[in-house]
Amino acid sequence: MIIKILGTGCTNCNRLYDNTKKAIEMGQIPATIYKVEDVKEIMKYKVMTTPVLVVDEKVVFKGKVPSPEDILKTIFNEMLNKDKDS
Amino acid sequence: MQIFTWFADYVVYNFLHLEKGHHLTNAVHFFIEDTSKIFFLLLVIIFIITYIRSYLTPEKVRSLLVKKGKNIYFAHLLADLVGIITPFCSCSAVPLFIGFVEAGVPLGVTFTYLIAAPTVNEVALVLLYGLFGWEIAAIYILSGEVIAFFGGIIIGALKLEKYVEGYVYENVSTDIDLEVEEIKITFKERVKEAFEYTINLIKKIGIWVIIGIGMASGMHGWAPTGFLAQIAGPNNPFAVLVAVLIGIPLYSNAAGMIPVVSELIRLGVPIGTALAFMMSVTAVSLPETILLRQVIKPPLLAIFLGIVTVSIIFTGYLFNFLIP
Fold this sequence. Notes:
Helix content of chain B: over 70%
Keywords (chain A): Disulfide bond, Redox-active center
Active site (chain A): 10 (nucleophile), 13 (nucleophile)
Oligomer: heterodimer
CATH superfamily of chain A: Glutaredoxin
Pfam family, one (chain A): Thioredoxin_3
Number of helices of chain A: 3
Protein name (chain A): Small redox-active disulfide protein 2
Number of strands of chain A: 4
InterPro entries (chain A): Thioredoxin-like_fold, Thioredoxin-like_sf, THIRX-like_proc
CATH class of chain A: Alpha Beta
């Protein structure tokens, strides 16, 4: 699983990064987290507010900093959806 | 707001049994009344604003501006008004800018929004209303709106599109989806999110509010009010200028600055000077400027900063003149 945090480097972006890390540790999810700070890269996701959480190329949160619990819930949901698809 | 006076009366006289008329009693009374009032207002007003915000995403603002913005003055006004309530974190400035320009929102209108959003800060509004009444709060909103409106118009009239970094326009495509998909959030979820945001914000800024009010109550009745008034008072013609120049690099969380400002006004600094100081702290932020450099070239950046700085200084002098 690939998780990206898009943000130009403000405190909210860092908080989202920390919360996501916690979520992954809590759920013991095999995932790699990347920080994306390049504006051109960020714009490819067609978002207008940062920070953004991207799970396997899908934007799941934008413009807010959810708690680790909420992030974990969303990641689990994403994993379930994918199982259904395949 | 009488209820907070009664609350403070009750705590000070009936609960703490302090003697009337003492400096200490007055200070404690003042502290309890102001903190309870401010936190109540913060809770209520920030909650209401955040709730409204959940309906007004940047994507919606953008499609509103593109669709209803045929008349350019109307578009500026619209950008100005939505700037009051839409969320704005300086780190969103760049994606927001690109998103607007890509969809064909005129440069001037984009700047009106970019100026209005951080200039009129909802926390500052609550504190000004709570500490000084609605007249000053209204003046604060009005001056921020006027600056943003005309700042955007000037930038639009100067035809500065050439100072926008090329890659921003490269992406301009006609297939930008302006139909905003209705986000399916229930009423309950909106309320929950607004409430969580409000609590988080109060947690973050609460300590500064308490420190500010604490300082003010500490000086209540004792402070040599003439001291600051002498340095930054009406007799110093450069006070506004200096206040703005100090304010710009001081950028911090706007909320942290407010108690300092209310302190200044209480100590006799004229409203215009204090307002100018506060607006320079919130509106012109160094981090935001550095980020904006990624999308606009130095000349436009300088014009943007220049217009905002000059307008704030002008507002300061105007209000000192109107409300001496």
